[in-house]
Write a sequence for this structure.
């Protein structure tokens, strides 16, 4: 087992700062109402916060120094009122802005999820599920720091610092000028720190998504892990991933701690300057004691926001990195992006034609080569051939998961590449070899293809697919929860539900990819009639390794190495004595030699036509 992507160093990519800022401005415009209210409340809050330190000068110089006792109660009343205003506006601001931020996160998640599910199937083939989940859930969370309290607090910190700075200049411009020099060096240090931290935050999200994706895979395949005693290997793979994540987090902690420590040094240095310069000013009678105490308070009002700005700046930097990652996904073209400019597709008759179709997943390595055939409306076309011959690729082309590298796929005369995908797929049905069931009830999984279906319709298709035979035995019947991916059901039961789901969809074009592969012989015989009724009147494509299941097909295409080497009906291909006959004889020869156990019955297999001739 090879190490997953979690163990591979993600490539660092230069962040498009201009685009991120443009998207940030768009976010701010979308939520300008709540942000405006938040800014007003924040401004009132910060102005009220200046009252208490302002009263310190008058308390010391006038009330205590000059004995003006009549000022005591007005000063106390003003401070109390300012405190109440500060508390009320702080609470209101949190309610308005925080709720707006959560709404923004919700809208962002909805927008990203809607885009992701419309991406081409090839994108999902090359991207881990955990990565996509991280983009939808974790990266969107960073929006809170832009349209939520983060940005408001950052602006509030700037306003408070500027107001405090103005008052400090008024009290002692020389001391304040020295502080500006010190704070300037601190600002430069923060700018360098944030520039280095932002790529680390971006890298952390990539690593976290990879680790999460691998963990989801190992938990989803826990039975395979246990069968092959691979718990230790999975532990090592996971350990490599989380240790890589730890190293990244440790670097960011070091960076943010350095910023915090730098802030502490700056605050201490400002304190030293105040002791020296302020003490001399008091002794020289250029400052009163009240002025000095007031100066100290306002230095605190200026320094605290600067420290807060460092923390909020880190959060906003992380949010920008998340927006940048979301932008990458949102810029990936969806498969239905051009649907708006295409003509609506009416109800299909179901005629499918391949015209000189070739397809390559990797340039220069063709998977299908110049395939041409006609599948008339209502007919059944079976695909047979060894693994890797191109059967699944051909089916992907029929389902419009991919488009031909060259040639055309026509449906009712319309080039499938030019048809509206929604209109086309609304008339498709599929029963796959590994059918996916959601962690819901049997009824919900059957109704997935037709959400508005009545209980009677669901019961009717369940009877055709013989789902009723096991569903009625459960305590909750059709309300029985099947578990994640249908884990509480057998393979055959899951496949019967998938067949019922396809019957309910009433599709014009039907895909059966090993639709009976998970069924035993008895169950297969039971639902063969159901599949036959499902195929009636529909254009059907069947992939089957059991050749007995496709004997009634209108045409059989034999693929080998991406080329249709034979075509015809079951009888015609047997009479031809070519590749299909070899596959047929080989399969029946293997089944003829299979016994269940000594002393027990064995499954009888009819002789091949060649053997029947010999008997005669």
């Amino acid at each position: 087992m090879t190490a997953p992507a979690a163990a591979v160093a993600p490539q660092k990519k230069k962040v498009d700062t201009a685009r991120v800022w443009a998207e940030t401005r768009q976010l701010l415009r979308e939520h300008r109402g709540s942000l405006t209210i938040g800014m007003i409340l924040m401004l009132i809050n910060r102005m009220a916060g200046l009252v208490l330190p302002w009263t310190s000068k008058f308390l010391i110089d006038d009330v205590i120094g000059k004995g003006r006792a009549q000022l005591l109660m007005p000063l106390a009343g003003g401070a109390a009122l300012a405190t109440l205003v500060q508390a009320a506006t702080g609470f209101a601001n949190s309610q308005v802005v925080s709720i707006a931020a959560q709404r923004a996160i919700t809208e962002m998640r909805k927008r990203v999820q809607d885009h992701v599910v419309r991406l081409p199937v090839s994108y999902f083939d090359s991207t881990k599920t955990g990565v996509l989940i991280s983009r939808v859930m974790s990266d969107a969370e960073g929006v809170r720091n832009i349209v939520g309290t983060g940005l408001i607090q950052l602006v509030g910190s700037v306003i408070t610092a500027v107001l405090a700075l103005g008052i400090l200049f008024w009290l002692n411009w020389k001391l304040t000028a020295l502080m500006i020099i010190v704070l300037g060096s601190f600002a430069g240090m923060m700018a360098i720190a944030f520039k280095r931290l932002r790529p680390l935050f971006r890298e952390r999200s990539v690593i976290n998504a990879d680790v999460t994706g691998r963990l989801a895979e190992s938990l989803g395949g826990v039975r395979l892990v246990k069968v092959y005693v691979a718990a230790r290997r999975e532990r090592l793979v996971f350990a490599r991933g989380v240790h890589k994540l730890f190293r990244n987090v440790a670097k960011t902690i070091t960076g943010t701690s350095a910023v915090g420590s730098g802030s502490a040094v700056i605050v201490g240095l400002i304190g030293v300057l105040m002791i020296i310069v302020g003490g001399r000013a008091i002794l020289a009678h250029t400052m009163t004691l009240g002025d000095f105490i007031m100066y100290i308070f306002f230095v605190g009002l200026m320094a605290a926001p600067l420290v807060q700005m460092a923390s909020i700046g880190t959060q906003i930097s992380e949010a920008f990195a998340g927006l940048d990652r979301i932008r990458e996904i949102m810029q990936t073209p969806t498969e239905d992006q051009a649907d708006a400019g295409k003509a609506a597709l009416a109800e299909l008759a179901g005629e499918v034609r391949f015209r000189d179709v070739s397809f390559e997943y990797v340039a220069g390595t063709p998977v299908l080569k110049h395939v041409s055939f006609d599948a008339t409306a209502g007919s059944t076309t079976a695909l047979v051939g060894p693994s890797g011959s191109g059967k699944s690729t051909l089916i992907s082309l029929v389902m419009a998961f991919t488009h031909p590298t060259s040639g055309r796929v026509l449906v009712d005369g319309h080039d499938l590449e030019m048809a509206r995908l929604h209109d086309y797929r609304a008339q498709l049905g599929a029963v796959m070899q590994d059918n996916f069931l959601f962690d819901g009830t049997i009824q919900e999984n059957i109704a997935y293809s037709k959400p508005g279906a009545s209980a009677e319709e669901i019961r009717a298709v369940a009877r055709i697919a013989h789902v009723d035979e096991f569903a009625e035995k459960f305590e909750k019947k059709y309300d029985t929860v099947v578990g994640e991916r249908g884990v509480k059901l057998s393979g055959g039961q899951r496949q019967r539900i998938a067949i019922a789901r396809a019957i309910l969809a009433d599709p014009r074009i039907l895909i059966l990819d090993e639709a009976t592969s998970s069924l035993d012989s008895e169950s297969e015989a039971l639902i063969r009639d159901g599949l036959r009724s499902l195929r009636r009147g529909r254009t059907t494509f069947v992939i089957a390794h059991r050749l007995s299941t496709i004997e009634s097909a209108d045409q059989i295409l034999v693929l080998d190495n991406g080329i249709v080497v034979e075509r015809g009906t079951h009888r015609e291909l047997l009479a031809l004595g070519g590749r299909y006959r070899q596959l047929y004889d080989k399969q029946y020869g293997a089944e003829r030699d299979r016994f269940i156990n000594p002393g027990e019955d064995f499954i009888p297999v009819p002789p091949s036509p060649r053997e029947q001739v010999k008997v005669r």
About this structure: Confidence is low (pLDDT under 50) at residues 1-13, 592-616.
